[in-house]
């Protein structure tokens, strides 16, 4: 159950940390409190939480740096906490792979709702991930369930992106939803509003800029030259179009 999930919170302000912990515990979550990146690393050494709530602006190693470092080795879902005026922090947080963000000040009930939404997406992806994969190209094993994105393949049934050897590639739940929308509508121009609508329908929190950021992140994984994309192409002032091979 989601209520049994373990949440690690990283915030250098004791009052905020206490308030967040109390709110999430009232929602039934197990909570680990960390006042710094070093505290978080110690907590991760003893066990992996199900989700990380991470403040952006902290002394020492900040939240952006922590998220970037963790994203290189872990699939841990991340919700960033940012100040209301710090749009750049939200943009950069999405660029390094945060699943969602909450702006301060916020209602603890909003944080709880976003935590549950991200956990549901992450748990669904984990439950549908096959235990083993063969080395063969996924198209051969799962005809009709896989879309080709350059050297990568989107497995629509298992809800994951894999490389040509069948190894999973790191993407967030929202990035998967974007890829699946493209896969369902090849050679069709999709507006940002359409992509935003599909993301919202699947519980993702997005804005126009977030769509652009996530497309940029996806391109880095699937395009031979992300600066000159051939698979997910930009349609100026409109949106994007997925051009499958062949």
What does this structure look like?
By secondary structure, the chain is an alpha/beta fold. Helix content is 41%, strand content 21%. It has nine helices and twelve strands. The chain has a five-stranded parallel β-sheet with strand order 2-1-3-4-5, with helices on both faces. Strands 6-7-8-9 form a four-stranded antiparallel β-sheet, with helices on one face. The chain has a three-stranded antiparallel β-sheet with strand order 10-12-11. A hairpin with a 2-residue loop joins strand 6 and strand 7. The longest helix has 20 residues. The chain is elongated, with a radius of gyration of 18 Å. The termini are far apart. About 10% of the residues have low confidence.
Give short descriptive properties of this protein.
246 residues, alpha/beta, five-stranded parallel beta sheet, 41% helix, 21% strand, elongated
Quick recap:
With 246 residues, the chain is α/β, with parallel strands linked by helices.
């Amino acid at each position: 159950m989601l209520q049994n999930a373990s949440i690690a919170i990283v915030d250098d302000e004791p009052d905020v940390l206490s308030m967040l912990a109390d709110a999430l515990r009232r929602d039934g979550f197990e909570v680990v409190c960390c006042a710094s990146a070093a505290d978080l690393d110690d907590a991760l050494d003893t066990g992996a939480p199900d989700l990380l709530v991470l403040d952006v602006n902290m002394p020492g190693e900040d939240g952006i740096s922590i998220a970037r470092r963790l994203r290189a080795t872990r699939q841990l879902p991340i919700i960033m906490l940012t100040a209301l005026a710090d749009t750049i922090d939200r943009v950069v947080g999405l660029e390094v792979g945060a699943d969602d963000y909450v702006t301060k000040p916020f209602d603890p009930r909003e944080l709880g709702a976003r935590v549950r939404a991200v956990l549901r997406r992450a748990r669904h992806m984990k439950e549908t991930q096959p235990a083993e994969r063969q080395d063969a190209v996924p198209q051969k094993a799962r005809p009709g369930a896989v879309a080709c994105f350059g050297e990568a393949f989107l497995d629509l049934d298992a809800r994951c992106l894999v490389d040509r050897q069948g190894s999973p590639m790191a993407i967030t739940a929202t990035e998967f939803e974007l890829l699946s929308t493209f896969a369902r509508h090849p050679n069709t121009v999709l507006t940002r509003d359409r992509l935003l609508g599909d993301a919202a329908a699947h519980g993702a929190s997005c804005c126009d800029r977030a769509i652009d950021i996530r497309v940029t992140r996806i391109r880095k994984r699937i395009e031979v030259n992300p600066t000159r994309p051939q698979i997910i192409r930009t349609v100026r002032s409109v949106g994007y179009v997925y051009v499958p091979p062949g």
